[in-house]
Amino acid sequence: LNLDAGETKIVELTVTNRLGSDKTFVISEEDLTGSENPEQPVILLGDDRGPYSLKDYIRPSETSFNIPNGYRAKIPVTVSIPTGAEPGGLYGSLVVGMTAAGTKAESAGGTATTNALVSRIGTLFFVRVKGQARESGRLEGFALSGESTYVLDPADLAFSLVYRNDGNVSLNPYGVITVTNIIGSTVGVIQVEPWYALPRSLRYRQVKWRPAFMFGFYRATASINPGYGGDRDKLAVSFWVLPWRVIIVTLAGLLVIIALVKRFILKRSKNWKFKNQNEK
Q: Whole-angstrom Cα distance, residue 11 to residue 91?
């Protein structure tokens, strides 16, 4: 959502029950944040307050409700930005939890029957307060997945990108990966679709590619647009593709050829010796 300071907007959250029986659901507000772990892009903070807190400004119309199996509930959610809010990003989540009636849990007096929370799923809210925000990000890492410099099977070819956002709003970097061969000719252009990076965090992205055939030395260059009109970042990685199936077939073929040539030479040598003996 893109909102002005002092603006209120109502959106709709849909919860569908396809679990096979009637269920009771509860909704709670939580802040979220990014992390320095590129493989964990989002951390829900529970009762803690995040650096870009939204939990005080987001309210569902219902916090507990029943849904029969096969039905859905549409829950209005009000997002209200206070007057005077600074430009930038606010981030939170509405966490929908499912309760199981009659679950047994340990209490001080022994075993008691409670309504235990058995599963949760979060809907992320990215709110940008309009105005001059600090947009700043860069492509920090680019490599073959697995940090290797060679690939034994082109079907396993994948690239890893790590993007750092050190601004105060989320970014949506995107771009292309261009692959060239040993003589510099382009053999593939891979589109990198937009993905999000939260403020003050790293965001990991894996891009898979399935070329028809590759063998030998290649160079891949990632050209990534930060998503806010800044200059593209470029990083490159060189690698070898050594498909083991092709290598085995090629070696087997060479061994067969060597064996045939050797047999031919031995046969010609025997014939030559036999001919010389006859002439003598």
A: 15
The predicted pLDDT at position 228 comes to 79
Q: What is the pLDDT of residues 171-193, one digit of tens each?
A: 999 999 999 999 999 999 999 99
Residues 52, 115: Cα–Cα separation, whole Å? 32
pLDDT, the chain, mean: 83
Beta bridge partners of 87: none
Q: Which percentage of the chain shows pLDDT scores above 70?
A: 79
Stretch 128-135: mean pLDDT, rounded? 90
**Res. 265 pLDDT band, cuts 50 70 90:** confident
Phi, psi for 269 (deg, rounded to 5): -65, -40
Burial of residue 120, with CB atoms counted within 10 A of its CB: 0-12 exposed, 13-18 middle, 19 or more buried: middle
For 1, 8, 138, 277, 279, the CA distances from 268, given in Å and listed in that order, are 84, 94, 68, 14, 16
Angle at 121 between CA 120 and CA 123, to 5 degrees: 145
